[in-house]
């Protein structure tokens, strides 16, 4: 459905250090990193797309998170949701909702929410039974 999702970051090196371990825990692999631009993109193994990309905004301005915008990543299990959330918080993310069931979405929805170093809202979730 999607080709790519791109999030603007103010400090590429700090953002890369933040995202690289989280995306690795989710089973994603680095497809490219170009420090001169700067930007980097991750993908699922064996697939070319979709991509998750971080980078400085193309127009050279400051990044600005969207009000109501969120990027959600699927986790292989609930333990990974927990681990990614803990790792993100330890790396400086702001909590927007600790890991747990969200039955208002559906009975098996298990998710956690946080904001990256630039305020972009992220979710890690699992839709299946444990």
Features:
130 residues, single chain, 4-stranded mixed sheet, 21% helix
SSE order in H/E notation? EHEEEEHEEE
- Mean pLDDT across every amino acid position: 96
Total beta strand runs: 8
Shape: globular
What Rg is obtained from the alpha carbons, in whole angstroms? 14 Å
- N-to-C CA distance: 26 Å
Stretches where pLDDT is under 50 for at least 5 consecutive residues are none
Largest pleated sheet: 4 strands, mixed
What is the helical fraction, as a range of percent?
10-25%
Please tell me about this protein's structure:
Strand 7 and strand 8 form a beta hairpin. With 130 residues, the protein is an alpha/beta fold. It has two helices and eight strands.
What topology emerges from the helices and strands here?
Elements: E1 4-8, H1 12-25, E2 29-34, E3 39-43, E4 51-55, E5 71-74, H2 78-90, E6 94-101, E7 110-115, E8 121-126
Parallel strand pairs: 1-4, 5-8
Antiparallel strand pairs: 2-3, 3-4, 6-7, 7-8
Outline:
With 130 residues, the chain is of the alpha/beta class. It has two helices and eight strands, in the order E-H-E-E-E-E-H-E-E-E.
């Amino acid at each position: 459905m999607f080709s790519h999702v791109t999030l603007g970051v103010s400090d590429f090196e700090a953002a890369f250090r933040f995202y690289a371990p989280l995306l690795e825990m989710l089973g994603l692999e680095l497809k490219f990193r170009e420090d001169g631009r700067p930007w980097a993109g991750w993908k699922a193994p064996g697939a070319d797309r979709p991509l998750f990309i971080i980078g400085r905004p193309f127009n050279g301005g400051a990044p600005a998170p969207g009000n109501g915008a969120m990027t959600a990543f699927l986790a292989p299990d609930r333990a990974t949701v927990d681990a990614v959330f803990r790792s993100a918080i330890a790396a400086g993310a702001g909590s927007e909702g600790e890991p747990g069931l969200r039955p208002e979405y559906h009975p098996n929805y298990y998710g956690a929410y946080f904001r990256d170093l630039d305020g972009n809202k992220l979710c890690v979730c699992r839709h299946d039974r444990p």
